[in-house]
Amino acid sequence: MNIRKKYGVILFLILFLILLFTSCANISTTGFHAGQTTDLKVHYIDVGQGDSIFIQKDGETMLIDAGDNESGKVVVDYLKKNHVSKIDYLIGTHPHSDHIGGLDTVIENFDIGKVMMPKVTHTSKTFEDVLLALKKKDLKLILPKAGDTYGLGDAKWKILAPNGEEYDNFNNYSIVIQLLYKNNSFLFTGDAESQSEKEILQANKKNSLISDVLKIGHHGSSTSTTDEFLQAIQPKVAVISLGKENSYGHPHKEILEKLKKNQVTIFRTDLNGTIIATSDGEQITFEIEKKQEVNKENGETLYIGNKNTKVLHTKNCNQLPAKQNQIYFKNKEQAFKQGYRLHEACQP
Ligand SMILES: [Zn+2]
Ligand SMILES: [Zn+2]
C-alpha cells in the first residue's frame, strides 16, 4: 500500500466515524423516528370543558395546558398513543384548574424541557400540585415576556401576552402565543379577555397579528373575542375548546354569530372531538375525531360520503366508509352537485 492510499483509507475512516457519531447524536436529542414528516401538527385535544393543545414540528414538541385534574390521564394517554416521550416546551397559560389541572400528571409521565407559566400564584390545591410536581423533577419555571420568540423545529413561536404586571381577573394573565411556520400562523389565547386583547393590539403592528387559525379565547365566552381583536386577527378558522352542555353556557351565542358573520369556519371540541390541523407552511388541513352530530342551532343534518365510490350515507349507517375516505356534507344537494348518489341500505 503506497503512502497516498494509506492516508486515503485513514481519512475515509475518520469521516465515517464523524458521520456515525453525529447521526447518533441527532437520534438521541430529537427523538426523530422514521416516517415522520416535516409538517407542523397542532392537536386540539378534546378534554371537555378546558384547554389542551399539543404541537409537533421536526420532532420537537410543545404542550399548551392539560385540561382539568381528571383530564391529565386523557392527555397523557393521547400523547403516549402518539409516541411522545419528551415535551420540549410545557406551557400553563394561567392558574385556573381547567388549564393547569392535568399538568402534574403530564410532568410525572414525560421528560420535560422548559416550563413556562405567568408570574402569578393561586391558592388552590391544583396550583400547589403543579408546583410540587415541578419541584420533584427539579424543573425551574421560565416567565413569559411579551415579544420574546422561541423555536420549535424550524417553526417559530412568539409571546404576545401578558403585557401587564397585575390583573384583577386571572384570565388576563393568560400566556398568548402566536405560532408561525412559513406562510401559516396559529394563535393560542388561553382565557385572555378583552383587556388583554386590547393590550395585544396596542403592542403589535396590526398586520403582524393576522393568523389563519384562532383558538377562541375563554371557551367562546362573550368576555373575549372583541370585534377589534377579530378584525386584526382575520382568522379563516376558529377552534373552540369546551365541554358539552357546560354550566357556563359556552360558547356564547354572540361569539358564534360574530364568527359566522365574518365567514370564519368553526371547529368545536364538544362537537368534533379532538381536532388536528396539519400545515405544510402554505396550506392547513383539518382532521376531526368524531362525526359532527345534528347541529340543533341551525337544524343541519350531516351526511357522510365515500370519496372513492361517491356513495352518500346517513351518519348512522352501519356501512360507513373507512375514516380516511369520509367526506361530510351539510345537505344532500351539496353532495349531488359533486356527483354523489344515495346508499340504498340507509336511505339518506
Ligand atoms: Zn378556561
Ligand atoms: Zn380561566
Overall pLDDT level: 88
**CATH topology label of the largest domain:** Metallo-beta-lactamase, Chain A
Q: How many domain modules?
A: 2
**Treating each run of at least 4 consecutive H or I residues as one helix, how many helices?**
10
Main pleated sheet:
8 strands, mixed
- Attached small molecules: zinc ion
Relevant CATH superfamily of the largest domain: Ribonuclease Z/Hydroxyacylglutathione hydrolase-like
The percentage of residues in β strands lies in 15-25%
Distance between the termini: 81 Å
Helix content: 25-40%
H/E element string?
HEEEHEHHEHEEEEEHEHEHEHEEEEEHE
Low-pLDDT regions: 11-35, 294-299
GO molecular function: DNA binding; methyltransferase activity; zinc ion binding
Protein name: Competence protein ComEC
Keywords: Activator
InterPro entries: Ada-like_dom_sf, Ada_DNA_repair_Zn-bd, ComA-like_MBL, Competence_DNA_uptake, Metallo-B-lactamas, RibonucZ/Hydroxyglut_hydro
